[in-house]
Design brief:
Length: 72
């Protein structure tokens, strides 16, 4: 299962995390970890916000895919 160099990923949003609508939450959680020397307990709120964003992003993607047909 190799992939060609330079080939586009199957889903445009899978290309880069920066393409995600949750990118700001992602970077905020990383900055928090940097600020608190990787003390995860102090960044839990950031993790929760990012997790919720990713959940909503996934639900929206599943909803969009409901209207697609594999045979069209």
């Amino acid at each position: 299962m190799g992939s060609k160099a330079g080939a586009a990923p199957p889903y445009p949003s899978a290309a880069r995390i920066s393409d995600s609508p949750c990118y700001s939450q992602y970077t905020a959680s990383l900055k928090c970890l940097e600020e608190f020397s990787s003390d995860k307990s102090k960044c839990q709120e950031h993790f929760d916000v990012y997790k919720e964003c990713k959940k909503k992003e996934r639900e929206a993607r599943l909803e969009r895919n409901k209207s697609r047909s594999l045979f069209s």
